[in-house]
Amino acid sequence: MFSSLAVYTLLALQVYTATAFPAYESLAGLPRDQLDAVVANTKYMRPPPPPGPLADDSSKLVHDAAHPYQDLKPGDQRGPCPALNTLASHGYLPRNGVATPVQIVTAVQEGFNLENSFARFLTYSTFLVNGNPLTNLMSIGDATPLTGQNPPKPATVAGLDTHNNCEGDTSMTRNDAFFGDNHSFQEDRFQNFVKYSKKYGAGKYNYTAAAQLRKFLIQDSTQRNPQFSLVSPRLFTAFAESVFPINFFVDGRDKSGQLDLDTARSFFQNMTFPPNFHRRAGAVSNVGQDVVTDLLPNFKPGSNTKGVNTYKADPTSANLDQPCVRYTNFVNKNIKSLYPNPTGNLKDALKTNLQYLYEATVAAGDGCTQVFPYGH
Question: Is the entire prediction scored with pTM above 0.85?
Answer without folding.
Answer: yes
